[in-house]
Amino acid sequence: ARAASVPQQHATRAGPHHLPAGAAVAAGAAVAAGAAVRAAKVAMCESFIELSLVLDVSGSMGGSIGELKDFAHSIIDQFILDDATGTRVSITSFASTASVLQPLTTDDSLLDAAIDSLSAGGWTSISGGLYEGLNTLDAGLTRTGATNVMMMLTDGVQTCGGSCSGCGSSCGGSSEPIAAAAAVKGAGTLLFAVGFAGASETR
């Protein structure tokens, strides 16, 4: 069993769209399940979705990495994973750089392993995470008719990546993440963010 305890999460819709019915229920149920024990995996929603989970594993997440893992697991557990009619999920992590840990799949064991492998360290390239997560939703990789959804879990602001040649406070700001978010939405993907710890919706 996995015990989930996710403090101070703030869900924000980052686009002019509404989450599909199944995903809306899943997002709400995942938050509600924050303090529940994951003794059994009971899928709740059958939705024809390609879901890209983009997870912040920068150094500032060190105190929250366990909660992030539990929350990511709980999101996946809300869906029926099925190639024909259900949901497929990809896992992307980001810190100073971003990488795809698991392409779109319906294999729960692969998704669990990718999430369980996470460890915190480095700076924060939100834009890198968004672009890399979007790569998992490339037209050649997704199913015809499926709704593309991206959910980012993060606690911070950009401190690395984009047009900046290095990392640090001088690489902060919102222009790079905003441009990346615009690219995600421009590709027809529904984008949502969940803030951890002291994350601010205004930043």
- The total of beta strands comes to 6
Quaternary status: single chain
SSE order, as H and E? EHEHEEHHEHE
Gyration radius from CA atoms, angstroms: 16 Å
Low-confidence stretches: 1-13, 15-40
What proportion of the residues form beta strands (DSSP E)? 15-25%
* Strand arrangement, major sheet: 1-6-5-2-3-4
Question: Helix/strand/pairing class, anyone?
Answer: alpha/beta
**Count of runs of 4 or more consecutive helical residues:** 5
Main sheet properties: 6 strands, mixed
Structure description:
The N terminus is likely disordered. It is built from five helices and six strands, in the order E-H-E-H-E-E-H-H-E-H-E. It has a six-stranded mixed beta sheet, sandwiched between helices. The longest helix is centred in the N-terminal third of the chain and has 12 residues. Helix content is 27%, strand content 20%. The protein is globular. The protein has 203 residues and is an alpha/beta fold. Helix 4 runs parallel beside helix 5.
Summarize the structure.
This protein is 27% helix and 20% strand. By secondary structure, the chain is α/β, with parallel strands linked by helices.
Primary descriptors:
six-stranded mixed sheet; 27% helix; 203 residues; alpha/beta; 5 helices; single chain
Write the layout of secondary structure elements.
Layout lengths: L9 E4 L7 H12 L16 E8 L8 H12 L11 E7 L3 E8 L2 H9 L9 H10 L11 E8 L20 H12 L3 E6 L8
Parallel strand pairs: 2-3, 2-5, 5-6
Antiparallel strand pairs: 1-6, 3-4
Helix pairs in contact: 1-2, 2-3, 4-5
